[in-house]
Design goal:
The chain is α/β, with parallel strands linked by helices and about 160 residues long. The protein has a single domain, classed as HUPs (Rossmann fold). The chain is built from six helices and five strands. The strands form two sheets. A three-stranded parallel beta sheet has the order 1-2-3, sandwiched between helices. Helix 4 links the parallel strand 4 and strand 5. The chain is globular. It starts with a strand and ends with a helix. Bound molecules: 4'-phosphopantetheine (PNS).
């Protein structure tokens, strides 16, 4: 069974990586799909986000990292995949996630969204929080892998510690 795990990944965190790791064990193939829509203001370009994901996921044989633009349902059709995975960190995520899943279902009846509950230890974690902590010089090594930490520091202050 092939699944798509879509997101902004701006940048990827240990929370995302935990979901991908668990998906790689439960499904034959995982496509990590990075949204490349201009209307979302991202810190990292789509190429940078793809590179960070590829670097952190290089050990996984059944995980592919790709970019998509436009509607997720169109991308899923193009990739011949009918299952979307989304992580749920808290009940507060559910409202938005349900809305997205129902819209996607309306657009494409065959598309299923499966929710994977985040591990408790990552339930507070988000890319936005990591960027905020990094912006004020806080310690981010517990939130993101080394390569992402370096990339964030470079964005913030040209790589100076
Ligand atoms: O990491 P994010 O930002 O929560 O991911 C959101 C994402 C990329 C899954 C969602 O915004 C998306 O699928 N965008 C593509 C446009 C689309 O299909 N919109 C209709 C469903 S709401």
């Amino acid at each position: 069974m092939k699944v798509i795990y879509p997101g902004s990944f701006d940048p990827v965190t240990y929370g995302h990586l935990d979901i991908i790791d668990r998906c790689s064990k439960s499904f034959d193939k995982v496509i990590v799909a990075v949204l490349n829509n201009n209307y979302k203001k991202n810190m990292f370009s789509v190429e940078e986000r793809l590179n960070l994901l590829r670097e952190t996921l290089k050990e996984y044989d059944n995980v592919e990292v790709d970019a998509f633009s436009g509607l997720l349902v169109d991308y899923a059709n193009k990739r011949n995949c009918s299952t979307i995975i989304r992580g749920l960190r808290a009940i507060s995520d559910l409202e938005y996630e349900m809305q997205m899943s129902l819209v996607n279902k309306k657009l494409e009846e065959d598309l299923e969204t499966l929710f994977m509950v985040s591990r408790g230890k990552y339930s507070y974690l988000s890319s936005s929080i990591v960027k905020e902590v990094a912006m004020f010089g806080g310690k981010i090594s517990c939130f993101v892998p080394k390569v992402v930490e370096r990339a964030l520091k470079e964005k913030m202050n040209g790589g100076q510690d």
